Backbone:
């Protein structure tokens, strides 16, 4: 059931609940406003009231000497008091004389209980019944094969307590097939087998082959894992039960395991089908032996999942797909044969993959003729499918902002920068001097890049500040997809990182904070050279660090002795010092061009790679000849 219907029924339910509550509390319990009030009075006051013959009903308890009474015409007030010990006789006389009615009790204690029960209990009961009825009605309306939903899966009081809240999407609603997934050929190939199994399980049964019960999609965020799982269900025309790991952990303790049980129960009814557990790492983390019971809930959920996966009848055709970007943190029990024994790698797209994804998403966008998506694909190494989809959409949005009806190449190029560096920040106004420093800094990077063979060509230089905090940047794009990087290329890259700061020093004889990001990147790269790439004389081919999470970031942690770590630091410092010296040297040799280009950039704020190269290689009659690298 779609979200709109769900919301509508939710609103309907809440309105009905409020109406029921108001009706009950005003019509059935009019004494809500006239509830009895209790006033404590002195014993003398009791006697006075009796003498004045004001008392209507009175009760007197011999055991604890408590008195309760109501006055004529004041039914809603109960007066309480305590008799003086030894005064029972006189009190009895006074009561008799006053003509008050003596009863066992005047305060309707038990009626208060009933009242409370009716006042609060009945509406709740009505709510529950109503929610249950609504739930039933909806399931019926949805029909057996149609999409169904659990009303109130996350709603607590209404119906659906104990239901998993897993969304069930019938195949006709998925509308996603392998055609909607560009690239990822290997992953699709593996999943085609799953599709085939779901379409004709008999063939597999006949030969006695057992298909994996589960397959785990692993890969960095945004590479299309969720999309692939949906597409698999779409291809096989089977229902798709999807639940996210984080949904298991929400709400009340003990619900997670119940959810798993319910999820598989539903799947069993609808088999053949696909059960998809997104972000399985939230429940599937390694269980640590003993210690605190803080993770009990998660552990129970995981255990239940393992039990269910072992238990279901595989002939029916239930395939469990799961997705994660942290496979290393998964509990080994999950990866045992018979569970998620099959791993399907969903990788970051390469050049062809990126182009295919861009083309797929650009299909829905009106563009000027002759858009060069190839150029965009080349400019976005390391971008995920989600990034690329976002680039196309940002480009279309920019076209709308510019009041155009079609997106242009420029729109897409600008959106690449938005995705990489953030939006342009018009509010940051740099002083002329700051602009000058940033110009020299960026031209410094660019000249160093252009003067080295191992650097990617410069495609754009800009000093327009970005929301990411960058005051300007130099874009470099490799001509071809690169899978291997040589040591020389790494060294050249280090030098380019140092080019910005070196230019500032050379021209202004000063340092600024503008190089902070360059320094961070350069240090990371130099450290990797030492600890992972084995590119230094000092250590050779020794792995000194491990990558903690291959899919989230490439951050390494050192695995060497503290003494070695010290030497690693020394080598890193040396690598960076050498790179800095090389950058300075290149810029000294090209000082005139540095001045010329920086002035030009400061005036124009953004220049293309072609403009840059033309100016750099142009013979200027006023300036001394440039030594060519
Ligand atoms: P993940 O689950 O791996 O984090 P998603 O499946 O949620 O990534 O992908 C997010 C979005 O990115 C998708 O909805 C789709 O628009 C886009 N996308 C990612 N990979 C691809 C691809 N290979 N082909 C087409 N679109 C893709
Ligand atoms: Mg996902
Ligand atoms: Zn820089």
Residues:
């Amino acid at each position: 059931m779609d979200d709109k219907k769900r919301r509508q029924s939710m609103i309907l339910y809440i309105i009905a609940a409020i109406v029921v509550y108001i009706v009950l509390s005003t019509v059935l319990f009019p004494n809500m406003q006239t509830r009895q009030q209790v006033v404590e009075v002195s014993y003398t006051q009791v006697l006075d009231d009796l003498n004045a013959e004001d008392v209507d009903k009175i009760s007197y308890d011999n055991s604890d000497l408590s008195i309760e009474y109501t006055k004529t015409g004041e039914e809603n007030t109960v007066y309480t008091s305590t008799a003086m010990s030894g005064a029972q006789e006189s009190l009895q006389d006074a009561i008799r004389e006053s003509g008050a009615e003596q009863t066992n009790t005047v305060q309707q204690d038990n009626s208060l209980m009933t009242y409370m029960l009716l006042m609060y209990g009945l509406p709740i009961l009505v709510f529950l019944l109503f929610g249950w009825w609504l739930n039933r009605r909806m399931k019926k309306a949805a029909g057996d094969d149609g999409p169904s939903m659990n009303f109130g899966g996350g709603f607590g009081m209404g119906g659906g307590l104990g239901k998993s809240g897993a969304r069930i999407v019938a195949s006709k609603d998925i509308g996603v097939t392998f055609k909607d997934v560009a690239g990822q050929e290997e992953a699709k190939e593996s999943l085609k087998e799953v599709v085939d199994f779901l379409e004709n399980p008999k063939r597999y049964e006949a030969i006695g082959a057992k298909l994996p019960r589960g397959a785990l999609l692993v890969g960095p965020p945004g590479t299309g894992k969720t999309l692939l799982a949906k597409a698999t269900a779409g291809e096989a025309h089977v229902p798709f039960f999807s639940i996210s790991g984080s949904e298991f952990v929400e709400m009340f303790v003990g619900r997670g395991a119940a959810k798993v049980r319910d999820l598989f129960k539903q799947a069993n009814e609808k088999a053949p089908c696909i059960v998809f557990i997104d972000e399985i790492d939230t429940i599937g983390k390694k269980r640590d032996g003993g210690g605190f019971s803080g993770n009990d809930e998660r552990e129970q959920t995981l255990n239940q999942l393992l039990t269910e996966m072992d238990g279901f009848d595989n002939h029916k055709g239930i395939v469990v797909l799961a997705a994660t970007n942290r496979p290393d943190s998964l509990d080994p029990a999950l990866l045992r044969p018979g569970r998620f024994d099959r791993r399907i790698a969903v990788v970051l797209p390469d050049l062809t993959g990126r182009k295919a994804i861009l083309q797929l998403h650009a299909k829905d966008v009106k563009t000027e003729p002759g858009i060069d998506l190839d150029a965009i694909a080349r400019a976005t190494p390391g971008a995920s499918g989600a990034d690329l989809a976002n680039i196309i959409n940002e480009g279309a949005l920019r076209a709308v902002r510019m009041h155009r009806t079609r997106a242009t190449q420029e729109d897409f190029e600008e959106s690449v920068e938005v995705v990489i560096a953030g939006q342009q920040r018009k509010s940051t106004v740099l002083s002329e001097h700051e602009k000058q420093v940033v110009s020299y800094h960026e031209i410094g990077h660019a000249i160093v890049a252009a003067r080295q063979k191992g650097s990617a060509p410069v495609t754009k230089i800009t000093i327009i500040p970005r929301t990411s905090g960058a005051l300007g940047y130099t874009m470099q794009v490799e001509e071809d997809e690169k899978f291997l990087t040589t040591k020389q290329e790494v060294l050249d890259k280090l030098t380019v990182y140092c080019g910005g700061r070196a230019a500032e020093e050379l021209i202004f004889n000063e340092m600024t904070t503008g190089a902070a990001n360059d320094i961070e990147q350069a240090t990371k790269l130099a450290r990797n050279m030492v600890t992972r790439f084995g590119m230094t004389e000092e250590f050779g081919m020794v792995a000194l660090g491990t990558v903690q999470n291959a899919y989230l970031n490439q951050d390494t942690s050192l695995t060497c002795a503290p003494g070695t770590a010290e030497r690693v630091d020394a080598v890193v410092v040396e690598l960076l010092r050498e790179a800095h010296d090389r950058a300075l040297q290149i810029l000294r040799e090209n000082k005139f061009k540095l001045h010329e280009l920086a002035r030009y950039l400061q005036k124009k704020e953004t220049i293309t790679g072609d403009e840059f190269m033309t100016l750099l290689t142009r013979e200027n009659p006023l300036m001394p000849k440039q030594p060519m690298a």
Remarks:
- Residues 109-142 form the longest helix (34 residues).
- Residues 454 and 492 are 6 Å apart (CA to CA).
- DSSP finds 22 helices and 16 strands in the chain.
- The two ends are 66 Å apart (CA to CA).
